[in-house]
Amino acid sequence: MDARLDLFASPTAAKVVKHLASAGFGIPDSVIPHSTQELVKIRASQLNGCGFCLDMHTKDAAAAGETSLRLHLVAAWRESTVFTEAERAALELTEQGTRLADHHTGVTDEAWENAARHYDAEQLAALVSLVALINAFNRINVMNRTPAGDYVPGQFA
């Protein structure tokens, strides 16, 4: 499978991807734990069917020490016992923020209030930003049919 475009060869696409990537640096691990950030990226990528982002974020999470059990259970987080209540709230917010068209208000008050029990305003801002960013990357890669499987952890650091 080949990508439709070489995103790095296109001056326009390369500039957009560079700016999106730099926006992600605004979410330090001190605000939201790195493990939670990776879980959020993985769940949104699963929902959007983005193989490239799944390849990247599962490998990055594993390289950072995430267990294979937790990585395998992200898709079934509701039925899993391996995630904290805070992680579960972040995953619910991620799902609703990714599937905005599924509910007339986008993210339900219940999901927001649950997340707010675990995260302060700055952390919620980081989560909202992270969900928006990963959805943007997912859409670029899915539309481009960017193939998965060759990512090396830290490749774009």
Automatic annotation (TrEMBL):
Residue ranges of domain Carboxymuconolactone decarboxylase-like in the record: 14-95
Stored Pfam families: CMD
Transmembrane segments: none
Family matches, as InterPro entries: AhpD-like, AhpD_core, CMD-like
Name of the molecule in the record: Carboxymuconolactone decarboxylase family protein
